[in-house]
Amino acid sequence: MSEPILATRNLRKNFGALTATDDVSIDLRAGEIHAIIGPNGAGKSTLIAQICGGLRPDSGSVHLLGRDVTADNTQARAQAGLGRTFQISALAMEDSVLENVVLGALGSSGNPWRFWSRALSDTSLTAKADAALERVGLIEHRNTRCAELSHGQRRQLEVAVALTLSPKAFVMDEPMAGLGAEGSKLLTAFLDQLRSEAPILLVEHDMDAVFALADRISVLVYGQVIATGTVDEIRQSRAVREAYLGEEA
Ligand SMILES: Nc1ncnc2c1ncn2[C@@H]1O[C@H](COP(=O)(O)OP(=O)(O)OP(=O)(O)O)[C@@H](O)[C@H]1O
Prior knowledge:
It comes from Marivita cryptomonadis. InterPro entries: AAA+_ATPase, ABC_AA/LPS_Transport, ABC_transporter-like_ATP-bd, BCA_ABC_TP_C, P-loop_NTPase. The protein has about 250 residues and is α/β, with parallel strands linked by helices. Helices cover about 35% and strands about 25% of the residues. The protein has helices at about 45-50, 75-80, 95-110, 115-120, 125-135, 150-165, 180-195, 205-215, 230-235, 240-245; strands at about 5-15, 20-25, 25-30, 35, 60-65, 65-70, 80-85, 170-175, 200-205, 215-220, 225-230. It has a six-stranded mixed sheet with strand order 7-8-9-4-10-11, sandwiched between helices. Strands 1, 2, 3, 5 and 6 form a five-stranded antiparallel sheet that branches. Bound molecules: adenosine-5'-triphosphate (ATP). Adenosine-5'-triphosphate (ATP) binds near residues 38 and 43.
């Protein structure tokens, strides 16, 4: 099997006596959507933070395209090809849609703030931003203030921001959160085709979306991966039903 695009190896993180990440080794392979599910407090956000560089693990490692990036900060990982969308929106509400995409591309690329005014007249940057907006279906809103977008459109915009860096892997933290049925359907269709461009590690509570999209699912409970498998394997797993879905086996 080809080398995973993104991987964690024996990742561990303690908060005092609590082990929030307990020996987690997961792979994200080319072309796949790998969903991470688990009850509240299972350690999904803590795991994502270590993968993206916001939190340093106590032990274990993170690998991107075969390279150990454990010591790299968030920005370095973004530059190395890790595209991220957030659970809590990181958009600038008073700025336009286009400005948000350019700002995101700049911020992640490590360019200092003082070049901001020049960035908007940099046609290669704005062309890239427009291409990303076109892809997520927001091009006609390029000059709209972000605050005027619907919740669903903001989610699309976050994906556009991530797209500008041509990521090699995406990490998405609850992209469906707050979307209505129609919004979820649209985003599900979009992610479905996005996986062929870059695989997606997807943390998501919306089980309809997870079951519709995931090639593989890993189930996290008390910081541990208790099972990894296909949708059918996870649905049929006795351990998962007992530990997570709360059903009597
Ligand atoms: N900075 C912190 N200090 C102490 N404990 C923390 C910290 N961050 C998280 N925890 C604890 O670690 C455990 C895992 O939390 P985490 O937020 O990663 O879970 P989660 O699966 O993302 O939950 P949710 O689905 O509710 O977002 C929880 O028990 C939480 O209280």
